[in-house]
Amino acid sequence: MILNRYSTGVPLSVLAVIVFALPAVAQSPVTPLNTLVANHGSVTAGDVTFSNFQKPKILPSPLAPLGDFNDIGVTATVNPDGTVALAFVGIDPATGLASPLVASLTTGGDQIRLVSYSIGVTNPALRLHSVDQNFGPETVITGNDEAINFLYAAEPIPNYYDGLIIDQLLNTLIRGASMPSADGTGNFSGTGGILLPGGNLAGYTMANEFGLVKGHISGKVGGGQHGAH
After folding, report:
1. Strands 31-32 and 43-45, how do they pair?
2. How far apart are CA 201 and CA 207, in angstroms?
3. In contact, 211 and 146? CB cutoff 8 Å
4. How do the pLDDT tens digits run along the chain, 229 residues long?
5. SS3 letters for 16-31?
């Protein structure tokens, strides 16, 4: 599972999470990602709505094939601390139930997904403030495989993206970010999330690139602009 946590309030924080297998999310409704992409659908938790899910026309990274999304589910929840979480969860396409996203040890290729979406607050007194992300607690890496979770912000120019947080999980977790720490201490230390670019706004357009890589990635830790001219 990959989880993105967004903070709001006055301001609000949001947490984005990617989870490849997380039974705990069974407590919240899970919507197949391919359904959200096909319908440009939305999910809401508290005062935050995630909408306009789609495949970006230009890939931020050459890693990401535009694969089917029927094995990924999406859920949004309000956390006890008031932040809002958007989770991407591995599911069984036949049942819609949580199921691990697996990269075979001997055959097959990378399991990478890339999706963009919009975030907006429904309460005019709130603003989006910060974001963090993490892998679900049951994410397991074996051999030389690697899990990745790259969070981007969309630029006003179509199909341009700025890298915000880059997480790579092999034997240990490697984190990098291109924005100041959410706690105002300056450079990102690897915990606590980052400030969202542009100040406290009512909405953002984001993108997540996440999945499992079979031992050939050497990604840059840090930010950067991606796109095509």
Report:
1. unpaired
2. 17
3. no
4. 666 776 654 334 344 444 344 444 445 678 998 889 888 889 999 999 999 998 776 655 555 444 567 888 899 998 888 888 898 888 888 888 877 776 655 555 567 788 889 999 998 888 888 898 888 777 777 666 788 888 998 877 777 788 888 888 877 888 888 888 887 777 777 777 888 877 678 898 888 888 877 665 444 333 333 332 2
5. EEEECCCHHHHHCCCE
